[in-house]
């Protein structure tokens, strides 16, 4: 286990992890927790990476499985109040309103759809998406078209 090589790999691909965290978690704290869990799972699995796939494909598979497993494990505690919370004004946390709308729409997709569109947004080929998700390459195209239509309807484009 070569720690400097691992850290370099994580540094190069951390954008993938952050996007998945934002897609699967709502609060900053939850995203940070998920990011740490992804890093931990990647470190645990690093010695078993054999290079049969690209490193980014391997990272995506581990990170996505971690996000989905962690998401299914946690049952959110819902508290009902009589009043709506005050919304913060000003900053959008470094994102534009359009990005916020897109991520809000993406969060409404089911887990499988989120996984496919996240990979697509990373400019992965249909073949790479098929390898990671385990579905047929032709079906990736069908699913992506359906997901895009669904997002357009959500955003009313």
TrEMBL record:
RNA polymerase sigma factor 70 region 4 type domain span: 101-150
CDD domains with a match to the protein in the record: Sigma70_r4
Record bears the keyword Transcription: yes
Gene3D superfamilies recorded: 1.10.1740.10, Winged helix-like DNA-binding domain superfamily/Winged helix DNA-binding domain
Pfam families for the chain: Sigma70_r2 (PF04542), Sigma70_r4_2 (PF08281)
SUPFAM superfamilies attached to this UniProt entry: Sigma2 domain of RNA polymerase sigma factors (SSF88946), Sigma3 and sigma4 domains of RNA polymerase sigma factors (SSF88659)
GO biological process: DNA-templated transcription initiation
Domain RNA polymerase sigma-70 region: 10-75
InterPro entries in UniProt: RNA_pol_sigma-70-like, RNA_pol_sigma-70_dom, RNA_pol_sigma70_r2, RNA_pol_sigma70_r4_t2, RNA_pol_sigma_r2, RNA_pol_sigma_r3/r4-like, WH-like_DNA-bd_sf
Record keywords: Sigma factor, Transcription, Transcription regulation
GO molecular function terms attached to this record: DNA binding; sigma factor activity
NCBIfam families: sigma70-ECF
Family per record: Belongs to the sigma-70 factor family. ECF subfamily.
This protein's name: RNA polymerase sigma-70 factor, ECF subfamily
Species the sequence originates in: Chitinophaga arvensicola
């Amino acid at each position: 286990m070569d720690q400097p090589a691992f850290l370099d790999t994580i540094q190069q691909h951390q954008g993938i992890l952050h996007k998945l965290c934002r897609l699967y978690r709502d609060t900053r704290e939850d995203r940070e927790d998920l990011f740490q869990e992804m890093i931990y799972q990647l470190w645990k699995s690093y010695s078993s990476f054999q290079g049969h796939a690209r490193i980014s494909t391997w990272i995506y598979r581990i990170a996505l499985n971690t996000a989905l497993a962690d998401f299914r494990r946690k049952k959110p505690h819902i508290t009902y109040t009589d009043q709506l919370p005050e919304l913060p004004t000003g900053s959008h946390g470094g994102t534009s309103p359009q990005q916020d709308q897109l991520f809000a729409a993406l969060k409404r997709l089911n887990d499988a759809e989120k996984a496919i569109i996240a990979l697509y947004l990373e400019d992965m080929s249909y073949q790479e998406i098929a390898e990671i998700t385990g579905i047929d390459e032709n079906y990736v195209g069908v699913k992506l078209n359906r997901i895009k239509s669904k997002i357009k309807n959500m955003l009313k484009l």
